[in-house]
Amino acid sequence: MTGFQVLLVAGTHGNEINAPWLFDQWSRQPELIKTNQIRVCRVLGNPQALQAGKRYLDCDLNRSFASEYLLSSSSQDYEVHRARELLALHGQEGSSPCQLVIDLHSTTSSMGSSLVVYGRRASDLGLASLIQAQLGIPIYLYEGDQTQKGFLVESWPCGVVIEIGPVPQSLLLARIIDQTILTLEACFKQIARIKSRTIDFPSQLIVHSHIGSLDFPRDTNGNIKYCIHPSLQGQDWKPIQKGAPLFISSIGDTIYYENDETIIPVFINEAAYIEKHIAMSFTKKEVLPVLDEWKDSLDLLINQD
Hints:
Blueprint (H helix, E strand, L loop, with lengths): L5 E5 L7 H11 L11 E5 L2 H6 L14 H4 L7 H13 L9 E7 L5 E7 L3 H14 L3 E4 L15 E8 L8 H22 L8 E11 L12 E2 L16 E4 L5 E3 L7 E3 L13 E10 L2 H11 L3
Parallel strand pairs: 1-2, 1-3, 3-6, 4-5, 5-7
Antiparallel strand pairs: 4-6, 7-12, 8-9, 9-10, 11-12
């Protein structure tokens, strides 16, 4: 099949069950989500991990798309095999190629409805600006951290992550489903407007760009000594200044933020990031002008039929 298609991925992490459940309901009720006549391919990212109720079997699928993994002949990890399989099916040279990917995730952090964009590709930023203009949702711009790479959406010409939370792992919540549908329909609406060339871009895009990540304080054996301070828990997207409490011990000892620069934390206390030694990530707010390059990139990508 030729022409423009959107790839929708659910269950990239097997213990994030809301989007896979939504896919199942959608297959039973085709009218459940309005796609504005955009062609869509729906796939489960990690079906074996979903069946096992685990984030992944061998390694994180959303870190398995780096070229050194995809080109390695020695890797026996299921997730690396699955990454190759997804590209063979829906990559640019695949049997049913897609040009734009939307990866559906949920989080235990209080991120609300948000987008994650990796790097500053013109098409990604252009799409994000349109969705933000419609819904007003925050955007986490992740870049410059080589310890975390190989993300799924980077393997397609355009791609964003929809991140919805908070929700515990492996728990189905109607609120998460509703927020996912709302954000997905906004994506389809904006894509359809580009396709019909009836789109008006906003003048600016507000992003929260990644500065770095902070681990929990740990003892010499690697055990966590302090937990997130109660006044910080659930405060994703809210600026913190010097003197703000970050961590607290079992006996009340507190660790404070000590830098002069005001920062904005995200993914605070995300359960899946404990193994990655991330208690939270820090961002700074940037206001970017919407460039003609972003508009032209999206138009060329979507109107290729």
